[in-house]
Amino acid sequence: MVNVTLPAAGPQEQELVPTLVDERTGLPPRLALRWVMRSRRNAVSEKTLADGLRAAALLYTFCEDRLNASLDDLFADGHRLTANDLERLIEYLRVGQGDTRGVRALATIGQCVPNIERFLRWLAKPMDRGGKGYVPPSELTLYDEQLRLTFSDLRAFRSRGKRIEPLAAGDDVALWELIGPIRRKDGRYEMPLRFPNHNPWHPKTRLRNWIGVLLARDSGLRRGEVGKLRTDDVRNVDGPCIAVLRRPQDVLDTRTSANRPKVKTVERELPISNVLALAIRQYSHTLLRDGGRRGARTPYLLVTEEGTPISGSSLDAIWKAVNGRTSRRMSWHVLRHTWAEELADDPLEQHLGSPDSSEVVLGMLREMGGGAHIEHALHLH
Where are the domains of the chain? Predict the structure, then answer.
C-alpha cells in the first residue's frame, strides 16, 4: 500500500489517495485502481479506502493461488465467482493463506468481508469498472443476493461498538445550564451573547466551543466535521445552513496530519438554527483577543487564540473541562447519537406499522448524517 498525491484539483487543494501496488512489478492492479478512483475516493476517507484495498488484496491473492488467474484478466472478461468459488474464498480467508499471519480469527474475517463483498459487487458491473459487456439487471440482482447470503454468517462476527446512550432530558438541561449563554427572564439569550462565570471553559474559548457543541447537538456533525468547517461553508439558502464538504487535502489546512480533523463520508447541506447562525456571526465579527475569530488568517471557522485552525486534540479537550463538572460523561459521539435518535422519533411514529418503516427512517438519517451506519446505534434493524 502506498499513498499517491494527485495533481491539484484547484489552487488550494491536493489529494492523497491510498493505492494498492503489486510488489513484484511496482504497478497498481488495474481494477483495484479503478475501484478507488471511480467509486470510492469521493465517498469515504483515506483510512476507509486503505481498509478496502487491503481486503481487495486478499481477493487478488485468492485468484492467483486458487483460481490460477490474474483478477484483472479474469474479471475483465466478465467472470463472476460461482458458489464453489465463494466457498473456496471463505476457506482461503479462514486459513490465512495469502498472508503470513496464519489462521485468521472469525472477527478478523468479519471486518474484511464487507469490503470484499463490496468489491465483488462492483466487479460484476461492466459499466462501472470500464468493461464493454452488458449484464442484465436481473442477473446482477441474483448475484448480489448470492453474495449477501454467502457472507452473511461471517458478517455476523464483525465487531460492533456498544450502543451509545443518548442524553436524557435531565442531562441535556444540565449541559445547557453549564455551557450555554446567559438568558433573560423571558428565556431568550441576552445579546450580544455572554456566558456565566460558572462556564468551565476559558472566557476566550466559550463562544467558539459553544458553537462547536451546537453543530454536533443540533446538526449531528462529527468531531472531524466540526473542525473541518470553513467560513464559506456557512450559507443562507432559503434560511441559514451549512455545507459539509470533504476537501481531503487542503493546503490551507496547516494542522499536522495526526491532528487534522477529517470529513469521513458523503457531503451534504444541513439547515441550522437562527441562534447558531447568530452565534457564528458574532464569533466572526469579534476580534481574536476578545474570544472571536476576526483577524484569523485561515478559512477554517473554529480557531485557536492565535488564529490557527482548531486541532483534533483541542476539540477533544472541550469535553475534559465539561466532564469534570457533570455526572454524565459527554462526548461528540454522545451528542451525535442524541441528535440521531431525536431525529428518528417523529418519522418512526409516522411510519409505525409499515413494513419498511426502519428503512425509510435509516435512509433519511444516512442522508442527513453523512452516510453513517447509524442503525447500529439506534437498534432499528
Answer: 2-155, 169-333, 337-378
